[in-house]
Input
Amino acid sequence: MLALTLLGCQGFKLDDVLGNKNEEEVKTEPQEAPKVELDTGTVVAGLKQALIVASKNAVASASKENGFYANQQIHIPIPEQLEGVASALRKVGFDEQIEEFELGMNRAAEHAAAEASNVFMEAISKMSIKDAFDILNGNSRAATTYFRSNTQTGLKQKFQPIVADSMASINFYPEYENLLATYEKIPFTQKPDLDIERYVTDETLDGLFKLMAREEARIRKNPSARTTELLQQVFGN
Output
């Protein structure tokens, strides 16, 4: 006891004397995986591949049956210019026709979305990203936002004929004209000024970009969504 007391006076701990090390003292902090400096070419390639994967997933989701119609995030509603038409016709018992018109727009979008992949691939392949690292370190939708702002005008021009063909394939135009003709028979009504093809095109592209942004966010945040070695290298770094 005297020996132990003397040891204690000299600043030793009893656990040290007995060989019992304090767990907190011997515990080592986990080492972070070393970061690899990526060259600009790798970052640009990774961002393009992220957009390719995101666009393919978006197209697959949107082009299936009810991909637009049943998805409230991208569902195409009655155009604002036709709200008066829809309201007036519902009052005289044309609810079913209004529902069919709304369904038709969404079906056209679903058909058109199936053809969007090639349009997106062409635009992505030509994309030049000077501020690649800013996009990489940006918010969860940075690449999609950049891609959209730089390609939307060209994409719209290429995509509108696809939408028009889709609308024709589901017999949308005769139903639309019948709807307007019925509305014009109501006293004191006037045919609305609306480019229905442009509206459906805009809504279809908007829906696809929303889905792409969601997919990009998954790639950035969820390692399991990085399905290629390049995505793992760029977004895991």
